[in-house]
Amino acid sequence: MPGEQLFEIARRTFDTPEFRGIECIEVEAKSIINKVPTASQVPFDYTINPYRGCSHACRYCFARPTHTYLDMNAGRDFETKIVVKVNAPEVLRRELAAKRWKGDHIAMGTNTDPYQRVEGRYRLMRGILEALIDHRNPFSILTKGTLITRDVDLLVRAAEHSPVSAAFSIGTLDEDVWRETEPGTPHPKARIDALRTLVAAGIPTGVLIAPILPGISDRPDQVRAVVEAVLDAGASSVSPIMLHLRPGVREEFMPWLREHHPDLVEPYERMYRSAYGPKADREALSRRVRSYTAGRTTAPDRTTAGRFGHRAADRRGTPAAKASPPPEQLSLLPPLTPSRRRD
User: Fold this and answer.
1) Alpha helices for the chain (secondary structure H)
2) pLDDT tens string 66-76
3) Is residue 136 in some structural domain?
4) What is the pLDDT of residue 3?
5) Using 50, 70 and 90 to split pLDDT, how confident is the model at 297?
6) Prediction pTM value
7) 3-state class (DSSP) for residue 276
8) In total, how many domains does the chain have?
């Protein structure tokens, strides 16, 4: 992605309340299928990202540093200057038709959300999905966006010929936490309704409880509420992921934490000496989440492919080439002591 060739053609703003303050930078991309670096510990080799930057404005977003590759900042620029690859569907058709392309699984939503609000204007995902359908190429989508329900007809068509799956990221149902940590996203309950829609259409759809924020969204009742709601809606898997604070994200998140939860700054600094926090604590909360699903039809999917809602095999049934990452990186952290409690 750092070396991605993008050619700017226009900048647009839209005079509507939902787009106030957002600038869309329209670009033409030379390529759209991205090869994942070999060193990356993810269960897929190829991705598509029709947008860079994200109006969801999640305080913790791991993709924020990628905006610096475009000489923009990882803070407000990431949230308000959205790069739109307007020729993505056409470029994708060309790349899928190339003799060198072997029909490997393509993951979408792994960097920025393809169903963020600008997709309602540009409708790039419909063209992308139509291209994938025409070439019977397997794919998966991870999103916080309820706009994915607009494309249920295409997802159903795609699933007739190739492995297709989706996953929603729903970190909390707590109204206060949602509003302060991911202010540009659809309401979590709207995402559960969207999950129910995809499940009813026959699309395997999992849920990432992600990220769990220590001392903010990790109380047992908060986590249990998400687990029970998504299982009731028919989620095919439930996978908790605790907050990661990698370099570049930490520098954006910690000032926000200091302003909104100053009592948590010192505990976070102790816990996040590395990007992931203490292994024993993460495993303890992972066990707790498993206990919430006891006796339910769906239990947490412990495979990496299940965690991300992606199929680990291509359309020919060949196992994914990459090894799964260490499972402890995707477990949870229990509440801080003392933890901030909400009355």
Assistant:
1) 76-80, 88-97, 119-122, 124-134, 152-159, 175-181, 188-200, 220-232, 250-260, 265-271, 279-292, 304-308
2) 999 999 999 99
3) yes
4) 55
5) low
6) 0.86
7) coil
8) 1
